[in-house]
Amino acid sequence: MTRLFHISDIHFGLEDPRALAWLVDCVEREKPDAVALTGDLTMRARHHEFAAACRWISALKVPVTVEVGNHDLPYFNPIERFLDPYRRFRSIEHVVERPLDIDGIAIVPLKTTARAQWRFNWSKGHVGERALAECLARIDALPAGTVTLVACHHPLVEAGTKGNALTRNGGKALAELARRGVAGVLSGHVHDAFDLIHPTANGPVRMIGAGTLSLRTRSTPPSFNDLTIENGHIAVTVRNLEAVPTPAMQIDDVPENALPPRQPGEPVAPVAAVPAVDPPVH
User: Fold this and answer.
1) N or C: which end of the chain has fewer CB within 10 A?
2) What pLDDT, in 10s, does the model give residues 60-99?
3) Is residue 211 part of a domain?
4) Could you give the residue ranges of the DSSP H alpha helices within 96-232?
5) Can you tell me whether residue 178 is helix, strand or coil?
């Protein structure tokens, strides 16, 4: 049996110290095989937020893979956002978008963030052609029989739409992952957990979302997903400090408006309309 802790949206700057300390304690005591962190390490990508987030991640004594979230690209330095958007990840760059292979189970990254987009809300996802091609090439190179999980920040589709409102090209990406028999797509961004089966032209795909370990809760308390994988079967338990049962922690669909309520004094994200550009591939 393989065990994976799936965490997301830790949001240093508005982090929940109690929840983060609890997660570290769980890792130390239970020693999962790996931790997958699906983005939004920080609140506004400030240097001190990244420094704190990177120290926290570096203290986890298990293999880690980290996806980049929309909150992790510089908000207040447009030159850095366009020319070197990953600069503040330098101290943990070895785990950023890092594929993991553990006992026949592979975690493959898929980038869903962009430095800019042709729409006003840059917090939403975008799957670029290059990002999708790299993800699919990694999957295609895996040995036959590998149980494959794809890790990204944004859910690729949301309920009741064709997949373009939340993540551009997400529906296309999900169909290609279905074609390859991916066991599940791990994501964050919504701040509530979910475990849904979504149909595509190439068959169904399981979408597994983690909640938040920050103060920016939406409708459920801070949590993380505890995944056990055995004989190709994935069981998901949503762990939280309030002892809420897993079914009550998981939302029934992925909302188009996936953002949690703003906290008092929290700045509004920048908006603009320029062509979408992927951050450089690492």
Assistant:
1) N
2) 999 999 998 886 775 654 544 444 556 556 667 778 879 9
3) yes
4) 129-140, 170-179
5) helix
By CB atoms closer than 10 A (0-12, 13-18, 19+), residue 6 is: buried
CATH number for the domain including 64?
3.60.21.10
Q: What is the DSSP string of 15-60?
A: B-HHHHHHHHHHHHHH--SEEEE-S--BSS--HHHHHHHHHHHHT-
User: What's this model's pTM, rounded to 2 decimal places?
Assistant: 0.87
- Count CB neighbours of 76 within 10 A: 11
**Which H helix or E strand runs over 230?**
strand 223-230
Tokens of 67: 């996806």
Write the CB contacts of 11 (distance below 8 Å, at least 6 apart in sequence): 40, 41, 42, 43, 71, 212, 214, 215, 216
Q: Which domain holds residue 182?
A: 2-249
* 116: in domain: yes
pLDDT in tens, 219-268: 999 999 999 999 989 999 999 999 999 999 999 999 876 667 666 556 55
How many structural domains does the chain have? 1
Query: Is 160 a member of any domain?
Result: yes
In a domain, 94, yes or no: yes
